[in-house]
Specification:
The chain has twelve helices and 14 strands. By secondary structure, it is of the alpha+beta class. The chain has two domains: 92 residues, Orthogonal Bundle (Arc Repressor Mutant, subunit A); 241 residues, Penicillin V Acylase, Chain A (4-Layer Sandwich), CATH 3.60.60. The strands form two sheets. The protein has an eight-stranded mixed beta sheet with strand order 1-4-5-6-7-8-9-10.
Length: 372
């Protein structure tokens, strides 16, 4: 595994782990608790989004007021199908002392900007019990986003009232939690993809939030395909039994890829021929393909993976700065300057999450447990 070990200059170093927030109760109550505990980060993320839209006016022709108007169009679809997660957003707004409309914009940002954010650098992969040294099911995800939001990362340990399972998830700012796992042994990683059939409907982040409430793997698959969805992600889903899927979704189409051989990798382009037919500007997704092939090769070189071998892949710098460990070196175009703001490995068998805050090449991993 030929990894480039030279440190990248100007990489932010975090000397503390990402904050952990423990919440419980109704969805509104959990939202309030998140908002109160992370008020500063949530307000900061809204300020960052304001700046991003302002800086991108020449491309987007969109103001913050315009973004709020656009985001409101998506809200009725979310309220009709997933009112509980809209209530969660209302709670976040109340607890953080911010406008509800601002939280809605954050959670519909990809839709209201028509995917012009070019988030083409996230990397997700997983191995099942046949491909690990100790028989555990492991998943890994590098979350790439604008570097200004790196300080807004935190971890949520939630115990919802009622029938939904406890879960442990990573998020940042005012975004609904979506990357994580629950007490029923179901994990989800998401990667942005770019279909041509996007429409007004249920925002992608709301769909992804709902997946964390699944009790069966079939239910998780079904929730990614809810009707009236606005667009879609790739949802890399795993079950503690070792079943691994990539569900490639658009607003109207989908395909399900199965990790039959115990390996699964996904980045930001469609793999299914069905979905490739509706991919927007595939020629702009070259770096996504480079990361996919790189991660796929590194993953398949080993049939006895551990948490540390997955972490080593997350630190890879081949094709820097558009590498698996992504660095904001150029940082010129406000719509195209992501960095890896956090990297995580999930041990689904032990219900643990190991997180590096910032670029994993120079930041330490910290361990979080789901206490269901």
């Amino acid at each position: 595994m030929a990894l480039r070990e030279l440190p990248v200059p100007n990489t932010i170093i975090h000397n503390a782990p990402p904050p952990l927030i423990e919440v419980s109760g109704t969805h509104y109550e959990m939202g309030c608790q998140i908002g109160e505990a992370r008020r500063e980060q949530i307000q900061h993320s809204i300020e960052n989004a304001h700046v991003l839209i302002d800086q991108s006016y020449d491309t987007l022709e969109l103001t913050w007021e315009g973004a709020k108007i656009q985001a409101r169009k998506y809200l009725p679809f979310a309220e009709e199908r997933y009112a509980q997660y809209v209530e969660e957003m209302r709670g976040v707004a109340e607890g953080a002392n911010v406008a509800f409309d601002d939280i809605v914009v954050l959670n519909a940002m990809e839709a209201v900007t028509m995917d012009a954010l070019h988030l083409t650098r996230c990397t997700s992969f997983a191995v099942n019990e046949q491909r690990t040294a100790d028989g555990h099911v492991l998943l890994a995800h590098n979350e790439d986003w604008v570097p200004e939001d790196e300080n807004d990362v935190f971890v949520i340990s939630a115990k919802p009232a009622g029938d939904e399972p406890p879960f442990l998830a990573m998020t940042y700012g005012g975004l609904l939690p979506n990357v994580g796992f629950n007490a029923y042994g179901i994990a989800q990683l998401i990667d942005s993809v770019y279909p041509t059939d996007s429409r007004i409907g249920i925002p992608r982040l709301v769909v992804a939030r709902a997946v964390l409430a699944s009790k069966r793997i079939s239910g998780a698959l079904g929730r990614t395909l809810i009707s009236h969805r606005a667009a879609g992600y790739n949802h890399l889903l795993a079950h503690e039994s070792g079943e691994i899927y990539s569900v490639e979704v658009s607003s109207r189409k989908f395909d399900i890829l199965h990790g039959t051989d115990g390996y699964m990798v996904h980045t930001n382009h469609y793999l299914s021929q069905t979905m490739k037919e509706i991919e927007s500007d595939p020629e702009e997704l070259i770096s996504s393909r480079v990361r996919y092939f790189r991660a796929n090769r590194l993953l398949r070189q080993n049939s006895t993976h551990t948490i540390k071998t997955l972490q080593a892949i997350q630190k890879d710098h081949v094709n820097l700065p558009n590498s698996i460990c992504n660095h904001n070196i150029q940082g010129i175009d406000p719509l195209d300057r992501e960095s890896t703001i956090t990297a995580l490995v999930i041990d689904l068998t032990t219900r643990e999450m190991h997180i590096a805050w910032g670029n994993p090449c120079q930041n330490s991993y910290h361990t979080y447990h789901l206490n269901a």
